[in-house]
Specification:
Length: about 375
């Protein structure tokens, strides 16, 4: 079947680029019936996050190499995160009788300027083709957020099953949660704030289980605890137990976020998924050389904390600044944050429902693609 869309993804580092693209490809196919050719230059990164053996009807994964075969471009071409399409492919787009709709999918930001840039055209000087900038975002004048139609139903069903059949749910994730312990997950980059998080958790009256998938945060914790941690290992300090988990696929990672009482996440895709989990969350943005991630992080916290009382909002600002390498004074208010989890849980549920009232990113993209230029 002829493709409806060519989606190009270059894996810069980590898992966010392919995490977003694989999710978008799946939603376009499953919810909109599109045939998607997903071109990825590092299929091994996709293999880490894709449920094993998962075949999604409508999604064809193509290895994007320098010598990619000549092909007729689909009517919609999505260039994820300005990954620079191959010159031959752009030339083929220009030769089409009806040139494809060329969309550059941008990184997510809560900053105000996004509304003014969403949907703007730009003319390619070489071919004269028009490319449009499509910005995900948190407001009605942006492209919205990626969300599967059945996501909340699956989340709620998983939570119900977790109580009815706990062994089944947790064995899959390699976890043995204790009923009496606070459940936290951590998927971050390196941060000086992690040391004070460990210190705060080891002295809490209530035990904490901190679940950490393999990767950069686990390596950082191994250093801080002076104990090498690999999947399946546990380290205890005071009332804190740190549990290392194997890196799981995207669906299982969702389940981890749904299970935990609060989640610390990073980048773009886990950041959005933690919001859909409707549990308290803290976010470490992907660091940029010019510290451009700091205003990005601040813009998000301003939106997110808008409905909270002044003290909770101030704590969130400080913790986010601390996690992201921004300026802070005094110790980070981990204890106050942990104490306020019940209020923050109510807030997270309201926030998730509010965001879900917005049209999701894939639906907006499909509509945008149909709109005459
Ligand atoms: O991996 P990241 O740090 O990705 C980053 C950001 O996207 C950043 O904007 C981008 O510039 C940079 O990559 C190149 O964080 P992110 O976006 O949360 O992506 C992680 C993906 O990995 C997400 O789809 C969830 C998934 N994941 C799993 O599938 N299994 C796991 O065990 C974990 C922890 C994550």
């Amino acid at each position: 079947m002829a493709p409806d869309c060519d989606l190009f993804c270059s894996v810069v580092d980590n898992f966010g680029d392919i995490g977003v693209c694989w999710r978008l490809a799946r939603v376009l196919a499953q919810a909109h019936g599109w045939q998607v050719r997903l071109w990825v230059d590092a299929p091994q990164a996709l293999a880490r996050i894709k449920p094993r053996g998962a075949v999604v009807p409508g999604v064809r994964v193509m290895h994007w190499r320098d010598d990619m075969p000549a092909c007729v471009p689909a009517p919609c071409v999505i260039e994820a995160f300005a990954c620079a399409l191959p010159a031959d492919f752009v030339a083929a787009m220009a030769r089409c009788d009806m040139p494809p709709r060329w969309i550059n999918l941008e990184y997510l930001s809560a900053e105000d300027w996004v509304e003014g840039c969403h949907g703007l055209p730009s003319r390619d000087p070489v071919t004269g083709l028009t490319k449009h900038f499509f910005f995900p975002g948190f407001t009605a004048r942006t492209g919205g957020l990626l969300r599967e139609r059945d996501l909340f139903a699956r989340r709620d069903a998983w939570r119900a099953a977790q109580h009815e059949r706990p062994e089944e749910s947790f064995k899959r994730l390699g976890m043995q949660p204790r009923d009496d312990a606070l459940q936290l997950s951590l998927f971050s980059y390196e941060s000086t704030a992690l040391a004070s998080l460990l210190d705060a958790l080891r002295d809490r009256p209530r035990p904490t289980q901190l679940w950490v998938p393999e990767g950069r945060s686990l390596a950082a914790l191994s250093g801080l605890l002076a104990q090498p941690l690999a999947a399946g290992n546990t380290a205890g300090r005071g009332t804190l137990s740190v549990h290392a988990l194997a890196f799981m696929d995207q669906d299982d990672y969702d389940a981890l976020l749904w299970h935990c009482d609060a989640n610390i996440v990073r980048g773009e895709d886990s950041f959005v998924r933690a919001q859909w989990a409707a549990r308290p969350m803290l976010w470490q943005a992907y660091a940029q050389d010019d510290a451009a991630h700091l205003p990005k992080q601040e813009a998000f916290v301003e939106r997110y904390a808008a409905g909270l009382d002044a003290l909770h909002a101030a704590n969130l600002r400080t913790l986010h600044a601390g996690l992201n390498g921004g300026a802070t004074t005094g110790p980070l208010p981990w204890g106050a944050w942990l104490d306020s989890l019940p209020e923050l849980t109510l807030h997270a549920a309201v926030w998730a429902d509010q965001l879900a009232a917005q049209a999701d990113l894939a639906s907006q993209l499909v509509l945008f693609n149909q709109t005459p230029i």
